[in-house]
Structure formats: C-alpha cells, structure tokens
Design goal:
This protein has 617 residues and is an alpha/beta fold. The chain has helices spanning 17-33, 47-56, 61-67, 87-104, 116-119, 124-138, 156-165, 184-187, 192-228, 235-250, 293-298, 307-310, 316-319, 355-424, 430-461, 471-481, 483-488, 505-521, 579-589; strands at 9-14, 37-42, 70-74, 108-113, 143-150, 168-171, 174-177, 254-261, 266-272, 284-286, 301-304, 325-331, 339-345, 467-470, 492-495, 500-503, 529-537, 540-547, 594-599, 603-611. The protein has 3 domains: 9-188, P-loop containing nucleotide triphosphate hydrolases (Rossmann fold), CATH 3.40.50.300; 235-366, Beta-Lactamase, CATH 3.30.450.40; 464-611, Histidine kinase-like ATPase, C-terminal domain (Heat Shock Protein 90). InterPro entries: GAF-like_dom_sf, HATPase_C_sf, HATPase_dom, His_kinase_dom, HisK_dim/P_dom, HisK_dim/P_sf, MEDS_domain, Sensor_kinase/Photoreceptor.
Length: 617
C-alpha cells in the first residue's frame, strides 16, 4: 500500500472455531494441492481438534502427514522451545524451516495459533516486534503465513496493533488488503506517532477523494442515462447532448462522430458538437492522418494527451486542424459504415486520460453503436415492407385483372354451350349429352373460382374502413342468408351474446358466412350442431365457431387455409377451395389470427381474433 511492498503475511481474526477453520482448512488444502510444505503450529491439547477440522475441510490428513507435506507442530516445540519466547531465535528457526522446505517443495506455508502469547505473558511490544520481523523474513521467500487471533480472547488494543502490523487480513470469511498496515520501520521506530498521523491523514484524504470521484462518476452516468432514455428527443438531439456531456466530463472542447473505413483509409466527419473554423460535417481526410486511426487499429478506445510527447505531432489533424488532445472509440456497425466517436481539444493535457474516462467514453459509444444498428435495421425493414407492399399491390392488380378479364370469355363459352344444348335438343346421343353437361358444369365451376379469386384480390383494395361493428347483427344477417340450408339440414345454431369489434362489416359478414357454411357442409351424416361463442383476451376478442362434424386430420390443419387447396373430392363435397383462404385474408386485414382445433370424427372449432371496438369519441 502507498508504494510499500505487501508480502504474504496474513492475520486471521476469528470469532468462533467454525469461523477459524472456514479460512484455515482451504488455506492448508490449497498449499497441499500446489505441492507446498504446510506447517500448522497449535497448542499441544489442540492437535486432535485441528486434525479433525482439516479432515472435515476435505484434506487427507493421514496421507499428508505420512508424506511429510503436512507437519503439525506444537507451541511448546517451536515458540517456547527454550521455555521462553525469543523473537530473534524464532526468526532463525523459521529461516531454517523455510530453507529446508523450499529445497524439496514448491514453497512453505505456515498457519500458527497465537493465543499462546497470552499464556506466556509476552508483552504487546514483543509480539508486535515479532510480527514485524515475520514481515521482513517472508519478504523475499517462497513462503506465506497466517497468524490466527481469537477476537474473544485478545484485548481490542492488542488486536488493533495486530491489524497495523499485518499487510493482509482475513475477517468474516473475507480476505482484505490492509490499508491500515504500517511498515515495521514506522511501527517500531521513534517517529511512529508522526508516521501514524501522516497515514491517518493520507487515508482520510484518499478515501474522501475516492468518494468524490465515485459520486462524480455516478452523477455523469445518471445524466447519460437520462439523455439516452428521453422519449421525446431524436437521435441527433441525444447525440448533441452526449457531446456536451462528454466535453464536460473529459474537459475537452469538441465532440464528434465520423464515418471511417480502415481498408480505404477514409475519414468523413458526420457530426460535430460546436463551431470550429475547420471541423464541420463533410470534411474528409485520410484516416491514417487522424487520431481516429488509433482506436481503429485496436477496435476499442484510444487517447493522446500530448502529441509531441506521444509521437503524433506530424499527423494532419494535429498540424492543420490543431488537435492537441484526443479521446476516441471505434464503433463497428453491423450492416452499416463503421464510426469513430471522439472528443478533442486544441490544448494538450498535463496527465494521460484515466481508465474511468476511457470506460465512460466506451459506455457512450455502446449506446451510439446500438442506435445506429437499430436505425439501419429499421430502414432495411421499411424498405422490405415497401417492396412487399408494391409486390402485393402488383399481385392484387394482376389477380383482379386476370379474374375480371377471364369472366367475359368464360361467359361466352358457357353461353355457346347452353345454346348448343338448346339447338340440338333430342338430336344428341346420351354420351354427347353427358359430355356437354360436363362442359357446362366445368364452366360454372370456373366462374365460381374466378369470382372467388376476384373477391380474394379485393380484400385489401376494395374493403371498407374499419369501424365499430356489432357482431350480433352480423350473425343475424348470416343466419337469414343461410336459413334455407339450416332448415333443409335440420341444423341447430346456438349463438351466445357477441361483442362489438373494430372491423369491416361486409367482410366480417363474409367471414362468418363461410365458417358457418363449412360447419353445415361438413357435418357428416347427422344434423349440424353449431355453436358461436366469444371470449375477451386483453385488447382482442376471440370468436369461435364450433361444430360436431367430420373433423380435420392433424397434417391438414395448416393446409386448409391455402388457396385452391381441397381436402375432399368434388364427388364428396362441392366447393372452390377459396373460402378459408378468403377468411384468413380477411382476418389478417383486421390485424387478427385464425386457426382450427379439430379431432377427426369429433368436430372442429375455428377461432378468430378481432380487435375490440375503439371507444366512442
């Protein structure tokens, strides 16, 4: 800390046995796994408890002891071997142990219980002097030590000094770099009070500056979030606000964004935040003659505090445009031109740009990159939609023209067939009469298909505006239209109260008439039983038509909505194969969906979603 070397000397301050071994067991286990010799120094009556705790911590204690990788020593055989404690003598003993251990093992690892200090009546001054000597001994050795202190047994004044003489602390299951650490020459020397005062004042100053810097960082981040989340500002307005914010944050005059292409060595200024006698949108330069070449090389952020010092004084942007300080980031745009987003100043800086400044610029750049890519995707989507709309319009025009123009020759064919039938009368043979009947029937089917195709092509172009429609009234109209068929088939039609929806009344009438006609047609051999219901789903209504007819196979449920696709032969069920395709097109025009749920032999339920009616003004 503060330029002092922090060696591997830890103080573990624990409040319970479980707290103690939660740190020491993994500490010893890590050493054994790394091929180090580990020594644990404990009181003679604690050795059994330590072995058990290490086993519970996942260590094969017996194997480690047998191999010599783990040594459990007693206080009496180390610190108090001569009957009393001598710090210099203990340092010599540890120096020998470290030399012996590192000759055969990767390193030496020590864990020592320090409660013996209290029982041996070692003074605080002696024990702290010893701990300071441990710092010196372990400084340049492949060795690491953890001294363990029971918080309940040691007085706070002692533990305070323990904290001061250990470069690292372990407390509450957390390893801490200790900024309260005092080097031995300061802690034990005659100027200890002065050094402690300097350290306290320095710590207060550092913490205050760090807190102020953090508050500043949070303030700028909050302002950035407010800018980019403003729903009422355009991209250009937000970009200008970010330029202003960045200029303030970095203390630089101008912000700008340019289109860049490293392969073509191209730089074209696109946006600039303020007035400048040379910098304005449209300015083009070789990219290699600008500072933006630096982030382009790394694909990240780059900065120049002083071009004379950093070796960039010959760049054109420096010579001709007067740029003396630069902070920029490279934006690789997916699907569009890459950009450089940067801030510049005509004066050099005394200090390099900080990591925080680089990080803040990068966060702004990430938003700009997202917005540019989003705009590109939106433009591509709009172009795709325009092309699709043009294509659909041409297809609709073609379908309408084809179906309209086909009707006249078809009417002529049908008229002449009927004229032949009347003129020839009984002169035709039975076979020719049958052929003529087939031809008339084919012409009629063709007419119905053309009419269906004409109706299909007109859904978008000839529809009425969507407005509130009472579905109850629509169903009553459909029931009246189908009354003859309902009576002939002895059908039972049950209709629940239906809602008011936003739609084209004529098209909704056609939709329901097709669905109910199908329910009657495909009822099978039993009289049709049809139920019409509606259920609210958020802003939509789900309208369902359920029957008990022949049903639909699983693999045919999607196919039935394809135009001219028929599941049954004409000898079974008549039709053009357009009805359900027309229903789907009508529903799509209304912004809803249509689907079917069915079991063969059990009936079908056709469901449609329609938007609820807009509230009356």
């Amino acid at each position: 800390m503060d330029g002092d070397f922090c060696n591997d000397h830890f103080a573990l301050i624990y409040e319970s046995r479980s707290d103690q071994f939660a740190a020491i067991a993994p500490f010893i286990r890590q050493g054994l796994e790394r091929g180090e010799r580990c020594m644990y120094v404990v009181g003679e009556d604690e050795a059994t408890e330590v072995r058990s705790a290490l086993r519970n911590g996942g260590i094969d204690v017996d194997a480690a002891l047998e191999s010599g990788a783990l040594v459990i020593e007693t206080i009496e055989n180390t610190y108090l071997k001569t009957g009393s404690f001598d710090a210099d003598e203990m340092m010599d003993r540890y120096a020998e142990i470290i030399e012996e251990a590192t000759a055969d093992y990767e390193a030496f690892r020590l864990a020592a219980e320090m409660s013996w200090i209290l029982e041996a009546e070692v003074s605080v001054e002696e024990s702290m002097a010893y701990e300071s000597k441990v710092n010196a001994l372990f400084d340049d050795e492949d060795a690491i030590a953890v001294c363990q202190y029971d918080r309940d047994r040691f007085p706070p004044t002692v533990l305070r000094d323990v904290v001061r003489v250990h470069p690292h602390l372990i407390y509450d299951n957390t390893v801490c770099h200790n900024f309260y650490y005092t080097p031995p020459e300061e802690f034990c020397g005659p100027n200890q009070p002065r050094h402690e005062l300097d350290r306290m004042l320095g710590t207060l100053l550092d913490r205050t500056e760090a807190k102020t810097e953090l508050q500043e960082r949070e303030r700028y981040q909050q302002r950035q979030n407010e800018i980019i989340s403003d729903p009422d500002s355009s991209f250009e307005e937000k970009l200008q606000d970010l330029f202003d914010l960045g200029s303030e944050r970095f203390d630089l005059e101008l912000g700008g964004m340019a289109r860049v292409d490293p392969d073509d060595d191209r730089f074209e200024l696109e946006y600039v935040s303020g007035d400048h006698n040379r910098f304005e949108p449209g300015v083009e330069l070789p990219l290699s003659e600008t500072f933006c070449a630096l982030p382009a090389e790394t694909g990240s952020t780059a900065s120049v505090a002083d071009p004379d010092v950093d070796g960039y004084a010959d760049l054109e942007s420096c010579r001709e445009f007067g740029v003396r300080a630069y902070l920029g980031t490279y934006l690789e745009i997916d699907g569009g031109s890459d950009r450089a987003f940067a801030f510049v100043d005509s004066d050099a800086r005394n200090e390099p740009f900080s990591d925080d400044e680089h990080a803040f610029l990068q966060s702004m750049g990430q938003w700009v990159k997202y917005e540019l890519e989003q705009h590109h995707r939106e433009r591509e989507l709009e172009r795709t939609i325009d092309r699709l709309e043009e294509s659909n319009e041409r297809l609709e025009q073609f379908a309408y023209a084809a179906s309209h123009d086909l009707q006249e020759p078809l009417r002529m064919v049908s008229s002449y067939l009927q004229l032949i039938e009347r003129r020839t009368g009984d002169d035709l043979s039975e076979e020719l009469r049958e052929f003529l009947s087939f031809a008339v029937d084919g012409a009629e089917r063709m007419r119905r298909m053309i009419e269906g195709l004409l109706a299909y092509s007109r859904v978008e172009t000839r529809g009425e505006p969507l407005e509130p429609v009472e579905l109850d009234e629509v169903v009553e109209d459909v029931r009246e239209n189908l009354q003859v068929r309902l009576d002939e088939t002895d059908a039972e039609l049950s209709v629940e109260p239906l809602p008011r929806v936003q739609g084209d009344g004529n098209q909704l009438r056609q939709l329901l008439q097709n669905l109910l006609s199908n329910a009657i047609k495909y009822s099978g051999e039993t009289p049709p039983r049809i139920e019409v219901t509606a259920e609210r789903d958020g802003t939509m209504w789900e309208l369902s038509v359920r029957d008990e007819g022949i049903g639909i196979e699983d693999d045919a449920r999607e196919r039935i909505f394809d135009i001219f696709d028929r599941l049954h032969g004409r000898e079974e069920y008549d039709g053009t194969g357009i009805g359900l395709a027309l229903c789907e097109r009508i529903v799509e025009r209304h912004g809803g969906e249509i689907w079917v749920e069915s079991e063969p032999g059990e009936g079908s339920t056709f469901s449609v979603t329609l938007r609820k009616a807009a509230p009356a003004e």
